[in-house]
Write a structure and sequence with these properties.
The protein is mostly helical. It has two domains: 1-37, no CATH class; 39-90, no CATH class. The protein contains seven helices and two strands. A two-stranded antiparallel sheet has the order 1-2. The two termini are 29 Å apart. The relative contact order is 0.15. Pfam families: DUF5997. Residues 25-44 are annotated as: Disordered. Residues 34-44 have a biased composition (Basic and acidic residues). InterPro entries: DUF5997.
């Protein structure tokens, strides 16, 4: 989860392991929406694009992207994405 996109009340509160487990098992609507639409953290963006975190950094890509932004890159990959995919999967 991209923590800066979570509600302020969630970010500022202390959460027990049991509370976090409950969120995983029964996510509130804001968490379901965040998982579905993003923004997603760099590790998730790189996974979805099929490249490394370093590849995103080399490209100067944002630290977080929405699902729509990721899908747009997949649909019409820029040269940097094509090159990074080759590098990640020789």
């Amino acid at each position: 989860m991209y923590l800066p996109a979570a509600p302020e009340a969630f970010r500022e509160a202390q959460h027990s392991r049991d509370e976090l487990a409950e969120l995983q098992a029964n996510p509130p609507e804001w968490l379901s929406t965040l998982r579905r639409e993003g923004p997603h953290p760099r590790a998730e963006v790189s996974r979805r694009l099929g490249i490394t975190n370093s590849g995103l950094a080399r490209a100067g890509a944002s630290d977080a992207m929405t699902t729509a932004e990721i899908q747009a890159l997949i649909a019409d990959p820029p040269e940097w994405l094509i090159a990074e995919r080759r590098r990640a999967n020789p």
